Amino acid sequence: MYVVGEEEIEALANVIRSGKLFRYEDDSECERFERRYADYLDVRHTGLVVSGTYALSAAMIAVGLGPGDEVLIPAHTYMATATAVLTTGAIPVIVDIDESITVDPAAIEAAIGPRTKAIVPVHMWGAACNMDAIMEIARRHDLKVIEDACQGVGGGYEGRKFGAIGDIGAFSFNYYKNMTSGEGGAVATSNDEIAERARCAIDPCHYYWTGRAEGIKPFAGNGGRASELMGAMLNVQLDRIDGMISAMRAEKKKIVAATARLDNLGLKLSPMNSPDYDCAAHVMYLLPTAELAARFVDVFPVVIAGKTGRHTYTEWDQVLMGIGAAHPAMNPYNHPDNADCRTTYSKDMCARSLEILNRTVMVPTHPDHTDEETDAIIHNIEAASQVALGGTSADEAATRPTGPLDPKKFDMGPSA
Ligand SMILES: *Cc1c(COP(=O)(O)O)cnc(C)c1O
In terms of Cα–Cα distance, which of 122, 50, 78, 4 is closest to 416? Predict the structure, then answer.
């Protein structure tokens, strides 16, 4: 989901004309964005970085994860959630999702072991995890919480923004996300020490320009510093985000209201943890079986959550193969401190998650949809439901062109 226009072109052109493309200068666009985004999220610090993957890695390094630690992550998320854990030397432990297609708090509780140090709730497709339950479990077991809010820019949980609830949050601004600078990411936290460690992970030499922080030792890390072009574009995108989210929420509300009558055929909305604060980039339905979900998308070609090709643990080759680093001596799966961690995976380890994902269909909204396009979507949901659930033949179920289903308007990427 992205909207880019003349304002971004203007902002980028201004930066290029100014000749100031490096962030550590006066009137920094990156700094301005970091301040504005911190206000927007209601946190003390944010840090801009080159990608969501890097933001997650920096966030996990910042909270102090390392060899000997296990980190609980959901079975349904982009692989960066898992690979970021490995960049710290820790081991990802994969746990089931529930029908909200976000991590199941009961599965978290059941998976906590003596080595568990952190939980990564992922607000998949902009829909909230059950943060009250997750924070309560984390407090009881003294676990860190790293929110993967890469798909949740602009959304929240019961009035608080995603990424501002746990110890630290990570965001992505890649091309398919709610807010974009082509590629990009950010971390957010209200903890001063975690923020300083994240800055070091993002740019180990940052103190050369910004000054050394009292009492905090630097450490070696890779470089993920953002450019002024990213900062400038994101300052424009930040002006757009609330309007986009409210347009998507309005469209979703209309679709949900109009398709409520299909309840008599057995069409059910997926349960949500905080529906009023959803990014509303999709309307999700939970079909009774995977076969019926497949029949639904035959008629109305939207996406089945379990079939995006890369958002489920069965697709995370490096993790399943135990290759946690480029060099074998740096591989967390070989590290002696990880000898007592749970390091074995199988493709059927979270069968319950796969079963739920394969019957969840996701109908995308878009902030630029016209009323006619929304009406066509509603019509097509009805046609697909009649075929999948009502026994109508596929020949009878005429669908209407929807405009918004242009794959470029999906926020899940071209292979979805
Ligand atoms: C997009 C995404 C990431 C990674 O972001 P990039 O900017 O593509 O590196 C991480 N986690 C989730 C859940 C994502 O959707």
Answer: 78
